[in-house]
Amino acid sequence: MHKVVIPIGPQHPALKEPESFSVTLSGEKIMKFSARLGYNHRGIEKACEERTYIQDVYLTERICGICSHSHSTCFVQAVEEIAGADIPKRALYIRTLVGELERIHSHLLWLGVAGHEVGFDTLLMYTWRDREVVMDILAMLTGNRVNYGINTIGGVRRDVTAEQGKAILKAMDTLEERTNYYIQIATKETTLIQRLSGVGLLSNKDALKLGAVGPTARASGVDRDVRRDDPYAAYAEVKFKVITDNHNDVYGRTLVRVGELLETYKIIRQIIKKMPEGPLTVKVPRKIPAGEAVSRYEAPRGEDMHYVKSNGTEKPDRVKVRAPTLANIQTVAKMLEDRQLADLPIVIAAIDPCFSCTDRLTGIRHAGKRSKSVLKWEELHAYSIRHYREHGIDFAELNKKMRKALK
Amino acid sequence: MIRPGKMLKQVLESVFKKPATTEYPLVKARMPDNFRGKIVFHPERCIGCRLCMKDCPSGAIEIRKVGEKKFECEIDLGKCIYCAQCVDSCLKKALEATREFELAVLDRKKLKVTYNAETGEVSKG
């Protein structure tokens, strides 16, 4: 059959963020899927090098709008490791608390989006209504609904009072009741099961080979969770199960996320109960001694990794971010092989992609050549002028015309 | 899965329920106590250490000397990311995060607010 290549994006009504996909179709069947990242590149890593560590906490927080606490905690952990700071227990507990609340809001958001992508908009309305409960709790604790700004180098900025603890526990009861209802839907509602089963299959072997992380990997039976395997913050002191599933498809990913919600409520209850008294911050010098550290964090979407290299000044030498979506985006091509085009939105949505997190680098290739080279700023500028001249656009003349027109 | 009887109960309940949304412009929204809104400056407390300027992630704050131990402060509300790090950095509590959030203006010059001991809070433009 005749093959058709369909470009999806960078601007497309179905996409929430600008990203370019190219799909080769034979009829309705997907033959090849490729993603081109880089449309959301903002140069955050470079910007981090030109700011002090304290300023970088707020910058890394803005890498992602949904898992903002994940990125800032991951960065702060790396810096604290280099500085050798001993963070107070209470601060670690508060970090864990906010991190888990963030997981609730992210998973509820995903559940709604997934419902929307398969045409189950009632689920979107229900989950997003319930998400408001946790958003209100986050606003109460930290002051704002997004970009909580709770982390600082050496601890946290705000305390949790006893009344707030009570309000959180009350909210957890409401959310648990609602989540149990969603589990009932996910396990009994035939239309949902039929729509999601067998869609976006990723075998255990492929998940390991492609390096999938987070719920995407756990739904393919990969028993991996940084919170348990390499405990950070207060995770070593709380008991929870790592939810895995062997469905290997979008249905499995739904079950993993909904199951994780219940575990999160358990973690939060334990944290409120066990929270020790003590100071919130420890003083960390502005100049961080020379060294390097890698920090891992289990974000709602999977393992987030930050690498920080310091050189003894107030500013880091290098900051590298590996967001969970970058690890997961490779799996989408595998999931879509020989599948129907209609499954594409839900399969992409099922990895819970965040392209703003992912876009860390843009590569420039010589047109027609396969080789890559690094261009300096001046070279890039000269190249752009030459490129437009070759295409018959000379800005020198245009500038003259513009000046005349303005007179 | 929901039986018709159960559905009827939900429908009737929803008829008499209050709307889930807030009537925001009519009823003024109350921000949480920890809210990080517009930053205000108290000139009498400032000692001019400029730690706030150094720590501001977006370069929105400027402290200027206007006399012997007297300082004025200019905050660009358009640049400010409302993280309130300056409030934490200030040793003398000269900066304060308020719960004010309705900061939209039609003229961008008005976003530059200067706090001075004599003239008080002045916005340009």
Comma- or semicolon-separated keywords:
heterodimer; A: 407 residues; alpha+beta; Cytochrome-c3 Hydrogenase, chain B; 3 domains; three-stranded antiparallel beta sheet; 16 helices; 8 strands; B: 125 residues; Alpha-Beta Plaits; four-stranded antiparallel beta sheet; two-stranded antiparallel sheet; 3 helices; 18% helix
Question: What would you say this structure looks like, in words?
Answer:
The complex is a heterodimer of chains A (about 400) and B (about 120). With about 400 residues, chain A is an alpha+beta fold. Chain A folds into 3 domains: about 5-35, no CATH class; about 45-360, Cytochrome-c3 Hydrogenase, chain B (Orthogonal Bundle), CATH 1.10.645; about 375-405, no CATH class. Chain A contains 16 helices and 8 strands. Chain A has helices spanning about 45-50, 55-60, 70-85, 90-115, 120-140, 160-190, 190-195, 205-210, 215-220, 225-230, 250-275, 325-335, 345-350, 355-360, 375-390, 395-405; strands spanning about 5-10, 20-25, 30-35, 150, 155, 290-300, 300-310, 315-320. In chain A, helix 4 packs antiparallel against helix 5. The mean pLDDT of chain A is about 90. By secondary structure, chain B is of the alpha+beta class. Chain B has a single domain (about 20-125), classed as Alpha-Beta Plaits (2-Layer Sandwich). Chain B contains 3 helices and 6 strands. Chain B has helices spanning about 5-15, 50-55, 85-90; strands at about 40, 60-65, 70-75, 95, 110-115, 120-125. Chain B has a 4-stranded antiparallel β-sheet with strand order 2-3-5-6, with no helix packed on it. Chain B has a two-stranded antiparallel ribbon with strand order 1-4. Chain B is elongated and about 75 Å long. The model of chain B has no long low-confidence stretch (mean pLDDT about 90). The interface of A and B includes residues 52, 58, 59, 185 and 188 of A.
